[in-house]
C-alpha cells in the first residue's frame, strides 16, 4: 500500500521580500521615495506658513481682487488702473503669449531660411549665414534685446522733428505706416455692418487651404502628379475674402496714423519695447533653429538627394518633397525646446519696459501688494502650464510626422 505524500507548500509572503525580492524591490523604492518627498514638502510648507504667520503675512490670494492702481502701456483687451490685479495679470499673460506666438513664427522662418542657406553652394551666402549664426548664438539674448531697443529709440526719427519739415520721412507703404523713435503706428481696422461675414469667410479660407493641402498630398502619393499648390493656396486665401469684402460694400475700413501736434494719432501703436523684444528673441532663437535645420538636413543620406536628381527633380522640389519631410523627424524634437526657450526668455521684457506677465504679476503687482510668495507661485504655475501646452501641441505634431508602416 502506497502512501500519498503532499507536495511542499510554497512559503507565504514575507516583509523581507519587499527589499530582497526583485519582483517587489523597485516598487518599494519608489513608494519610499514618494513618501520621503511628501514628508519634506509638507515640512517645508508648514515651516513657511508658520514663519509667514509670525510676520503677519499668511498665504492669501485675496489681493487679486483689489484694484491694480497702475497703467499698462500696450494692452490687447480693455484695462484701466482701476481694474483688478487679476485683470492686470491676465493682460500681462496675453502680452507674453502674443510676443511668444509671433516670435515662434518669425524665428522659424528665419531659422529655416538660414539653415538651408548655410548649406548653399554659394560660398558668400553660406559664409554670411555662418557669421549670423555664430554671432547671435554666442551673445546673451538680453544684450540683443537692449541693443535693438537702443537702435529703435535712437536711430529712428522723432515725431516732433517733423513739424515744419517733411513728415513723409517716417511714412512707409503709401503713407499707411509710421515708423518713429516713439513706436510704430499701423492702420487700425474699423468694423462696419457685415464685417463678421468677411472674417468668417477668411477663417473658412484657412480651413479650405488645410483641406486642399491634405487632398493634394493624397493625390500626389496616389498618382505622382504635382499641382501648383502655392498658387492655388494663394487664390483660396485671397479670392473668397475679397469677393465677400466687395460684395458687402467694403464693410472693413482702415484708419491710417496721421501726424497731429507732436505725435501721430490714429491707428495701432506698436511700442518700441514690444518690437525690440519680438525682433531680438526671433533673430536670437532663429540662429539656434538654423543649426537644428542644418543638422537635420545633413542627417539625411546623400543618396536620397542623388536619387531625386537622377529622376529629374529640381533642387527646390528635392528639398521640399524629399529632404525636408524626412529631416522634420530629426528637427521637431529640438525645435520644441527652442519654442519653450523663446517663451521663457520673453520674461526678459522687463529690461526694455515691455509689460508682460513678469512685469505685471511678478513686478508691479508684487511690489504694490507685498505678496511675494503668492505672486511667485502663480507665475511659476502659469509658465509651467504654458510650457506644457506648447510641448504637448508640438508632440502631437511630432507624432503625425513619424513614419507610418504599412
Describe the structure.
The chain is of the alpha+beta class and 406 residues long. Helices cover 63% and strands 7% of the residues. The chain has a 4-stranded antiparallel β-sheet. The protein has a two-stranded antiparallel ribbon with strand order 4-5. A two-stranded antiparallel sheet has the order 6-7. A hairpin with a 4-residue loop joins strand 1 and strand 2. The protein is globular, with a radius of gyration of 29 Å. The model has no long low-confidence stretch (mean pLDDT 86).
Largest sheet: 4 strands, antiparallel
Radius of gyration: 29 Å
Q: Poorly predicted ranges (pLDDT <50, ≥5 residues)?
A: none
Number of helices: 12
Rounded to the nearest angstrom, the distance between the terminal CA atoms is 66 Å
Please give the share of residues in helix.
55-70%
- Strand order across the biggest sheet? 1-2-3-8
Give the helix/strand class: alpha+beta
How many strand elements? 8
Strand % is 5-15%
The topology string of helices and strands comes to HHHHHEEEEHHEEEEHHHHH
Average pLDDT, rounded to a whole number, is 86
- The geometry reads as globular
Q: Which structural traits does this protein have?
A:
alpha+beta; four-stranded antiparallel beta sheet; two-stranded antiparallel sheet; 406 residues
Amino acid at each position: 500500500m502506497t502512501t500519498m505524500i503532499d507536495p511542499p507548500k510554497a512559503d507565504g509572503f514575507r516583509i523581507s521580500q519587499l527589499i530582497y525580492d526583485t519582483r517587489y524591490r523597485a516598487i518599494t523604492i519608489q513608494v519610499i521615495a514618494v513618501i520621503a518627498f511628501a514628508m519634506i514638502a509638507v515640512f517645508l510648507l508648514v515651516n513657511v506658513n508658520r514663519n509667514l504667520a509670525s510676520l503677519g503675512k499668511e498665504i492669501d490670494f485675496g489681493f487679486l481682487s483689489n484694484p491694480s492702481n497702475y497703467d499698462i502701456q500696450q494692452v490687447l483687451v480693455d484695462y484701466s488702473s482701476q481694474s483688478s490685479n487679476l485683470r492686470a495679470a491676465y493682460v500681462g499673460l496675453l502680452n507674453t503669449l502674443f510676443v511668444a506666438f509671433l516670435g515662434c513664427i518669425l524665428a522659424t522662418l528665419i531659422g529655416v531660411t538660414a539653415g538651408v542657406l548655410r548649406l548653399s553652394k554659394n560660398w558668400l551666402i553660406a559664409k554670411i549665414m555662418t557669421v549670423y549664426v555664430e554671432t547671435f548664438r554666442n551673445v546673451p539674448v538680453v544684450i540683443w534685446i537692449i541693443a535693438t531697443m537702443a537702435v529703435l529709440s535712437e536711430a529712428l526719427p522723432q515725431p516732433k522733428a517733423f513739424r515744419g519739415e517733411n513728415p513723409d520721412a517716417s511714412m512707409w507703404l503709401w503713407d499707411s505706416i509710421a515708423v518713429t523713435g516713439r513706436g510704430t503706428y499701423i492702420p487700425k481696422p474699423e468694423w462696419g455692418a457685415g464685417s463678421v461675414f468677411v472674417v468668417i469667410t477668411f477663417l473658412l479660407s484657412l480651413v479650405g487651404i488645410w483641406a486642399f493641402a491634405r487632398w493634394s498630398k493624397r493625390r500626389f502619393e496616389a498618382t505622382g502628379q504635382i499641382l501648383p499648390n502655392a498658387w492655388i493656396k494663394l487664390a483660396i486665401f485671397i479670392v473668397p475674402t475679397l469677393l465677400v469684402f466687395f460684395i458687402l460694400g467694403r464693410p472693413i475700413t482702415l484708419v491710417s496714423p496721421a501726424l497731429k501736434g507732436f505725435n501721430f494719432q490714429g491707428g495701432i501703436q506698436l511700442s518700441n519695447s514690444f518690437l525690440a523684444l519680438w525682433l531680438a528673441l526671433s533673430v536670437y532663437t532663429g540662429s539656434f533653429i538654423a543649426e537644428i535645420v542644418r543638422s537635420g538636413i545633413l542627417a539625411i543620406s546623400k543618396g536620397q538627394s542623388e536619387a531625386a536628381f537622377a529622376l529629374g527633380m529640381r533642387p527646390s522640389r528635392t528639398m521640399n518633397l524629399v529632404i525636408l519631410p524626412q529631416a522634420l523627424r530629426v528637427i521637431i524634437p529640438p525645435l520644441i525646446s527652442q519654442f519653450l526657450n523663446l517663451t521663457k526668455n520673453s520674461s526678459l521684457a522687463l529690461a526694455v519696459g515691455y509689460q508682460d506677465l513678469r512685469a505685471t504679476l511678478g513686478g508691479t503687482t508684487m511690489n504694490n501688494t507685498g505678496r511675494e510668495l503668492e505672486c511667485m507661485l502663480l507665475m511659476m504655475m502659469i509658465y509651467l502650464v504654458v510650457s506644457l501646452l506648447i510641448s504637448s501641441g508640438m508632440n502631437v505634431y511630432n507624432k503625425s510626422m513619424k513614419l507610418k508602416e504599412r
